[in-house]
Amino acid sequence: MKDLYSVDWTFKEARTEPLHSIHPYPAKFIPQIPEKLLELFSPKKNLCILDPFCGSGVTVCVAQKMGYNAIGVDLNPIATLITRVKTTPVADDFLNICDSIVEECKKHEQPVEKKNFPNIDHWFSVDIQYALAILKEQIDVFRDYQNYDALNFCFSSIIVKVSNQDSDTRYAFRDKGKTKTDVLKFFLQSARKLKKNSIKDGTTATILNMNSLHLDDQIPNNIGAVITSPPYPCAYEYWLYHKFRMYWLNYDPIQVRGEEIGARYSYFKKSKYEGYDFAVQMTKLLSYLYDKCVPGAPLCFVIGRSKIHGQIYNNDEIIADIGKSIGYKYIATLTRDMVNSRKSFNLSHARIKVEYIVVLQK
């Protein structure tokens, strides 16, 4: 498709939409990529758009906005929480509920149960531990509330901000001097931003918290396009980025780390993965998707290259070669510059400056 090459895929002037800026997420997908791909390929509206590594849900949100039923899958429970919230309307009484939670929190000096996980006293002052634990207890009073996920989304969005972690992308200790008052203030700020920018209505979005290599029958046979960015080897530590959030929301980050494709941990532990593991994983996924996509469906992978034990792995070529071997038509490999502000973790190791959009078609 000649039109693919006429687009400046870097989108240097792109600005993050407010809905996508409320909750931090590493290497966030910019909406312009899925928007342009769906515009160029124009799948029929009765087909589903799939992102098997949905992350913060940008592809799913774009597809929903454009009138498609969308499916997002991710192993990381924080990712699927974010995506569920961004694709679900917020009720009229949401801010009233949040205000009532904050007022109730003010009545308590200590939580019913103190939170405990590795190094919690290093990364969270006692006052902040108590404030977060109390806030989570009050949120959990509303487990049956239609926007319970949204309450946890707002809670999750502030955790690093009130911690002793320097920033969302830098694991260095820094006492920020935050207090219980800040915890409650930031929670309400997040809630107000979500309410203001949430979708009002939309087509169906199905979000699955699971390993994309084990989907089996969860995906229908009417996928009209796949647009995704796989977590390729040694690029970003998604589990690490959300480790504290997972602990506070009662998920297990170590279990997520063990299954996460591309986590740097997997390549440097004693029984380390070898470079071909990513190819094996992508072969399994692309073979599965071949049976789920309709004829003519594009499969678009935004991906960078990896450096593992001094060797460069061209993940774009790996994806293209696998696709051709399975029976997909190879359409194009497009190049886009990486924006420095969108990077996080392992930068000196990964040195990611360029990424590619590999386009296949069934």
Care to give the gist of this entry?
This protein is an alpha/beta fold and 362 residues long.
Query: Which residues sit in consecutive blocks of at least 5 with pLDDT less than 50?
Result: 341-350
Radius of gyration of CA atoms, rounded to a whole number: 21 Å
Assigned CATH architecture of the largest domain: 3-Layer(aba) Sandwich
**CATH hierarchy, class of the largest domain:** Alpha Beta
CATH topology group of the largest domain = Rossmann fold
SS-derived structural category? alpha/beta
Domain DNA methylase N-4/N-6: 9-77
GO molecular function: methyltransferase activity
Protein name: RNA methyltransferase
GO biological process, one term: methylation
Describe this structure in words.
This protein is an alpha/beta fold and 362 residues long. It folds into two domains: 2-88 and 201-361, 3-Layer(aba) Sandwich (Rossmann fold); 94-197, no CATH class. Helices cover 42% and strands 16% of the residues. The chain has helices at residues 2-5, 18-21, 32-41, 58-65, 77-86, 94-105, 120-123, 126-140, 148-158, 180-197, 238-241, 243-248, 253-259, 264-268, 276-292, 315-326, 347-350, and strands at residues 48-51, 69-74, 165-167, 170-173, 205-209, 223-228, 298-304, 306-308, 311-313, 329-337, 354-361. It has a seven-stranded mixed sheet, sandwiched between helices. A two-stranded antiparallel ribbon has the order 3-4. Strand 1, helix 4 (58-65) and strand 2 form a beta-alpha-beta unit. Helix 3 crosses helix 4 (58-65) and helix 15 (276-292) packs across helix 16 (315-326). The chain is globular and about 60 Å long.
